[in-house]
Each structure stands twice: as structure tokens, then as C-alpha cells.
Amino acid sequence: SIPISSLIEKYFDDIKSITDKDFNIFDFKKKVGYRNVLPIMCHVLLKSLGLYDSKIISLKKLDSFLRSVSDGYKESTLYHNSLHGADVTQSLCIYFLNSNAEEILETTVLDLLGIIVSAMGHDLGHPGYNNNFHVNAGTDLALTYNDASCLENYHTSFLFRILKKEESNILEKLSTQNYNNIRKRMISQILATDMANHGEVVSLIKTKIKTSEEEGLNRFDLLSGNEKTKFDEQQILLNYMMHAADLGHNCKKFNISIQWVELLCEEFWMQGDMEKKKGIPVSFLCDRDKIDVPSSQVGFLRGFVVTTFDCLIRMFPTLNYTMDNAKNNIKEWKNLQEKHRVRGWTPEKNNEKEK
Ligand code: AMP
Ligand code: ZN
Fold it and tell me: Which of 55, 91, 276, 350 has a CA positioned 20 to 30 A from the CA of residue 342?
């Protein structure tokens, strides 16, 4: 296939906006085509963070790596496909680019590389059914991973299998110790994207922020300064950044976020259809006949997104636009809630009705 650098030249005018907080990935997809979105975006994002460097990664192997990651996602999975992988990577990069996170977390180049590569591959091979489905249906994934974060374990394993292949091993230049460290970080970060860990990931951060605020420090001192515990303390912060980025579209402009929600709903509802067919319990938000989308969105945004991003902006006030967008999205969904108290409402169906 065409070298990614040639694609970057070809779409030169469109790639400039990739590092903007209001970047529209759906418009970008129309331009470059589904298969090219993740490779182009991730190539540009690595460059923007200064990681496109032959001293850090094997540049010769980058095309093969990015293509393998992109193709490892299923296009038939409506939400958890390579666009989501690219979008989470983009969200994460702009949190680092627009704040002093690198300084506060005292991250090394390798930490940064690790978290960006984790974001790229964090939902690899997602089949469009969530953990609850796998456990209840007793699928092969549930059997392989004994019901414990089966998807996240699978995504992590998938990513490391790509990295193990000779032609796509961008990490081959790392020393054994550096490789072992980055692998440890990446496993932890991807496992932290299991929503079942949301409470734990956020409460660990809240405690850190609170201690820091109580000590009356001018700026957040999120690390204790103990060299022995530093690696693990940083890991808590990195896992949290990853989790926030995974929810990142909820803090983008409404016209973008609503498109993600439409895709997620349809993916959930197809799962619900399958659950009904199999006679197993229909998972949360997965019953297309019962869900009221605007109300569930207000609930999700208030219950999960606001709590997560409140911590983010307390640590990094320059990222306050995320919370502004989340609050505006709540307002938009509330407007829709008022207007459409119809069961089974979807934005798509509703648009058709209005036409
Ligand atoms: P992941 O599966 O790794 O993408 O983890 C993020 C999870 O957060 C998704 O699978 C969804 O279950 C959930 N999520 C994110 N945004 C929303 C939303 N707007 N409404 C409901 N659930 C959401
Ligand atoms: Zn995800």
C-alpha cells in the first residue's frame, strides 16, 4: 500500500487540524477513507509529540505497525473500530500538548511513547460485544480470560502480538529493561480502560489531588518524591489520563460527540438483539425498545464524564475546555430530552421523521 508519508503529502491541508481540540474525525474519514484514518493520524500525532525519531522507534517499521493496528480493528464494529482508536489517541495527545502534564507527571520519552501506543491499540479486535455479554454468553474470550476484563486482556495481547512481529516491531531498539518497563506500563494502561475500574481509577486520583490541595501547594505535587514508589505513582496518573481520553469524545463539541453516541447506541443495541436471541440478560443501555437516549446521556455525562474530567481540570486548568464542552453537551441532551419523550428515540430516526 501507499507509504503513509505520501498520504501525508497528499492530504497536507487536512492534516494540519489533527492536533486541534475541535478536529472533526468524521469529516477527515470522508476525505482520506476509513483505512487511512488511524495510520495518518497516529503518524502525525507521534511527530507532534517529538516521538518520530529514529533514536526512539524504528521508523522503517512504523508503516507496517500502523497498518497492522488499523486493520486489527473490525470495521464492522460500529463504535469500537479504528476510528475510535485514532480518536482516543488524538484526545490523549492534545491533553499532553495543551497542558504541563509531562512536567507534572515527570514522564520520560518512553512513558509518553508507551501511553500513545497503548491508546492506538487499546480496543484492538473489539467484536462489538462488551464484557458483560462475553461473561453471560460464556464465549471463548470469557473462557480464555476467566471473566476478568476479557476484552481489555485481549486488546493488550493483540497489540503485543503485532509488536512481536519482525516487520512491525517499532520497539525493537529499546534495551531489555526499557522494553520491560514500557510493557508493564502499557498492560496496566489498557487494563485500566475497563469501565469496571472507573471508580477505582478516579478515586485514586481524587485522593492525590486532595492531599495536594490540603498541603496548600502552589501547584499540584502529585508525586511524593519517593524514588522507590515513583514508577507506581506515575502509573496511577497515566492510567487515569488514558481513561479520560477513552471518554474524550464526550468532551468534544456536540456535533462531533453526538455522532459517537449514535454509533455506540447502535453497537449496544445490536448486542441487545443478540442477547434477546440467546435468551441471556439484556445488558445496560442495550435494549433498543426501552432506552431513552437523551436521558441516558444526561445520566452518563453527569455520572461518569463530569466526575472524571473534574479531576483532569483541577490538575491541568488549561484543559478546562473539556469540561465546558461536557457541560454544554448535557445542556444539548437536556433540550432533546424535553422535546422527545419518546421511547426508542434515536437521533437518526428522529432526523428521518423530520425530513
Ligand atoms: P472502551 O470500551 O474502552 O471504549 O471504554 C469506554 C466505555 O465507556 C465504552 O465502552 C462505553 O461503555 C462507555 N461510554 C463512553 N461514552 C459513552 C456514552 N456517551 N454513553 C454511554 N456509554 C459511554
Ligand atoms: Zn475505548
Answer: 276
Nearest ligand, CA of residue 194? Answer: 1
Nearest to 155, CA basis, from 246, 241, 257, 43: 246
Residue 180 three-state SS = helix
Distance (Å) of CA 197 to CA 7, 206, 278, 310: 38, 14, 28, 17
Closest to 120 in 3D by CA, of 216, 22, 193: 193
Across the range 179-194, mean pLDDT stands at: 98
Q: Per-residue pLDDT tens for 199-238?
A: 999 999 999 888 777 776 655 678 988 999 999 999 999 9
Check pocket membership of 68 for ligand 1, CB cut-off 6 A. no
Looking at all shown ligands, the one closest to residue 247's CA atom is: 1
Question: For residue 249, how far is its CA from the centre of ligand 1 (angstroms)?
Answer: 10
Cβ neighbors of 305 (< 8 A, separation 6 or more) are 247, 250, 251, 326
C-alpha cell at 348: 437518526
